[in-house]
Amino acid sequence: MTYQLALQQLTDSALPTGAFAHSLGFEGYIERGLVHDEESFGVWLGAFISQQLTYSDALAIRFLYEGAPVAELDALVTAQLLPRQLREASIKMGGRLLEIGAEIFPSTELAQYRELVNSGRAASHQPLAFGVVARSLGVPLGDALAAYLFATVTSLTQNAVRAIPLGQNAGQRILRKAADCVAAAAERAGHLTPDDFGAVSPGLEISQMRHERQRARMFMS
What we know:
Blueprint: H1 3-10, H2 26-31, H3 38-65, H4 70-80, H5 84-104, H6 108-118, H7 126-136, H8 141-163, H9 168-189, H10 202-210
Helix pairs in contact: 3-4, 3-7, 3-8, 3-9, 5-6, 5-7, 6-7, 8-9
């Protein structure tokens, strides 16, 4: 399993993709007082994992692994990411991941995706950039899904520790509980159909849209 060390590097929280600058919607819940402690953030995180991460990111990665053209998936991800900030966050972090991948994990598949992006035929979404790199490294789909989902959860939890704020031990407790949600999400994504793609709770999307006009913000999304 030569891909394991590479996968750890790819999902390390220190990878400079800019994830530290995004709440992906939870800051809006903080502003309204709905997320204010360990328990309430855990509830939000569970909903985010089981909905947006499952029906958007995880499903995009799975379809990529199954052979769907990356350009078509890129357009679908762009279309279903209705909140502008979330769409821009996915593109910014995906673009950085493509740049990093080209330097440390180059492959023909990655070069082809970058060419689509550079020519304006694709946007460079984060889950697809990750999926392209992971697949070129020989990472099995199940491992790729679990690693991507948990890396996203880790970044969000680290950001919540700063923003709410929470203690470091609280963050670790949240991650331990979230691991079960991540495993369930990876399993569920394997049974969904193209018709399920982008099925997200309106409450999450509305909060992500409201964040654009929030008076005081720590995060870009």
